[in-house]
Design brief:
It is elongated and about 85 Å long. Strands 3-5-4 form a three-stranded mixed beta sheet. It has a two-stranded parallel sheet with strand order 1-2. Strands 6-7 form a two-stranded antiparallel ribbon. The longest helix is centred in the middle third of the chain and has 14 residues, at 154-167. It is α/β, with parallel strands linked by helices. The protein is built from nine helices and seven strands.
């Protein structure tokens, strides 16, 4: 199990995470960061050991490995493949990446990531469980970019994000957007974000004497900016679970 994007998570509870996963029967867990290629070099040796110890592997005549990468959308599956190629083959990108779900739309042809041992990886579209267990679980997946923003609504997601940041006492957004103090009013926070970034638009207001154009904050743009900043790790290290 590869837990990617470790640079964005609060890993002060790493021991508890490992304990919980082991209770669920999961072993051989790696934390990786494909931006800086942290721990990525450990992936191929671990795969080699696990496959070589399998009885099914010894039925094969060809000494090569073909591995499928499977996971939730937007966790960095394509980035992991590119990172492995960069480290082991000194090659450039072979799989398209992006900070939103749905970049990989089909199982691609196999991509070589190592010469010794000879190993190929198959990139796959992100997969989710057929049913999400709760609204809260769905919101967490949405904040991580596993679900397309427009399916949930940027405003709703921004409101849940603000609640999460305040609950974990992550108040870096206060200074970043020039707020006087922490707030649980998403409208006032988004208004400040919009004004800080110059995200405004003209709105026509009907009055008794005619139509008047006024400048109003662009709340959807501000919500998108807040979400994008969070996903880049610029609002602090956060662990949603």
């Amino acid at each position: 199990l590869v837990l990617n994007k470790m640079d964005l998570a609060d890993l002060t509870h790493k021991a508890r995470i490992l304990e919980r996963l082991e209770q669920e029967g999961l072993k051989n867990i790696l934390f990786t960061n494909c931006v800086k290629d942290e721990n990525v070099k450990k992936v191929i040796p671990l795969i080699t050991d696990l496959v070589s110890s399998s009885q099914r592997y010894h039925r094969a005549e060809n000494v090569e490995y073909c591995i499928m990468v499977i996971g939730v959308p937007n966790v960095g599956k394509s980035s992991l493949i590119n990172s492995m190629r960069r480290l082991h083959l000194k090659k450039g990108k072979a799989s398209r990446v992006g900070g939103e779900p749905g970049i990989t739309k089909a199982v691609l042809t196999r991509i070589q990531v190592s010469e010794r041992p000879l190993m190929y990886l198959l990139d796959t579209p992100g997969v989710l469980a057929p049913r999400i267990e709760s609204v809260e679980a769905g919101m967490k997946l949405a904040l991580c970019g596993a679900i397309r923003d427009h399916l949930v609504g940027e405003g709703i997601m921004a409101d849940y994000l603000l609640y999460t940041l305040n609950k974990q006492q992550q108040f870096s957004y206060v200074q970043r957007y020039g707020l006087g103090e922490p707030s649980d009013d998403i409208e006032s926070v988004l208004k400040r974000v919009a004004l800080k970034l110059g995200r405004t638009h003209k709105v026509k207001v009907l009055t008794g004497t005619g139509d008047v154009n006024v400048i109003a904050p662009d709340y959807p743009a501000a919500a998108y900016e807040l979400l994008r900043t969070f996903r880049k790790g610029e609002l602090g290290l956060v662990l949603l679970d």
